[in-house]
């Protein structure tokens, strides 16, 4: 037995939204928590979503009323607790009678409006598309309803920050290479991805929240049979120059009975997705295929006047959704597989408990996390009550984005609106952590000089230093694609300079 061992109540494997949510919930309830993630936080499924907080309108077709009700209720909770990275979004659904009759859509939207209480979002209604519609002229009517937008990767980072504020130890770029039951506890070995140094932990409860890797954790780390098989489904998205300048998103029906979202993205782009393709292989190697790009372009072209092709794609990404396999009929299409979640708790007589998370969706991460900690609560006499339903995520303690922008403009009148808007939508009040402490009365050069080197596209040294110091950013990709989306605008020279700067900071 090594002499240097860290004792914790709970050790969580996996730094996606479910893992950090569990760490946040548990730490806030008085448990001593450590979390390890083999790569960057939100480096896999949790940063490759459709960026939506939604009930799942299409799940009603598969009679998943309980899941939709649960997700709709959570949508309201999340929008209230994170106004910087989440906000309401209206969706337009063009009607195609040959695919789904109008009465079916009206019924579905009625249920969507009434399955759970709404306090922030307006109800659905029918619409007529006028001559200024971005849709083809053949689409004359449809429906409009509400859901929510989320910056998925920042949601993960903010939950990790909240967990750390409550005492949790967050360890990205650290793999769990062994976990064995010994004398009523888990003996766990973690290994740093860069230095290959190992740390030993002793945990009362182990939580497997490894997402697409949840089953492989049993094979390679715990060395026992997985209690639940996962169905890995690839979902891919493309980003193109904006198809229209209107604020609404669109939900498009296709002849294969799938739906595709077209969502306003980062002011100048449109996000189009997603696909549902069964996936075999290492989730770390997932990538969009040419066929998927062509499919998404075709669905968009079937609906919008502005036509696109593969050459218009400025960025694409793919993620692997870990869906529950049990109970599915042979040959069942991927889009019909449940997005609900399930736990298994393995607690042999005299042995340390293991809780494993299977399935889930972004919108229900907080509820899943609360349920998971409730499931292990019998093993801790000192655990307190659930608390996250009314807990604002770090930086979210403000009334509205416009109000915070106006307040910051009073203190920093030399900053332009686009920079303030991006910072508020990413950090909320946390942006004061990297803004200069001294004030300047007008738009003067000393104000910007206080932010340090400008790497391009409004990214300054002060923000980079903050992200490295407080948000676990390690390399340029961490910042450009997860902490921000500035990778859409950076050129190769700017990326190289940012990476050079960050590497130099690591050597200090």
TrEMBL record:
Cofactor(s), names only, from the UniProt record: FAD
Residue ranges annotated for the FAD dependent oxidoreductase domain, each copy included: 9-366
Catalysed reactions, semicolon-separated: a quinone + sn-glycerol 3-phosphate = dihydroxyacetone phosphate + a quinol
Domain Alpha-glycerophosphate oxidase C-terminal: from-to ranges: 388-493
One Pfam family, short name: DAO_C
Coiled-coil region list: none
UniProt entry keywords in alphabetical sequence: FAD, Flavoprotein, Oxidoreductase
InterPro entries according to UniProt: DAO_C, DAO_C_sf, FAD-dep_OxRdtase, FAD/NAD-bd_sf, G3P_DH_FAD-dep
GO molecular function list: glycerol-3-phosphate dehydrogenase (quinone) activity
EC number: 1.1.5.3
Entries under NCBIfam families matching the protein: PRK12266.1, PRK13369.1
Family indicated by similarity: Belongs to the FAD-dependent glycerol-3-phosphate dehydrogenase family.
Name of the protein in question: Glycerol-3-phosphate dehydrogenase
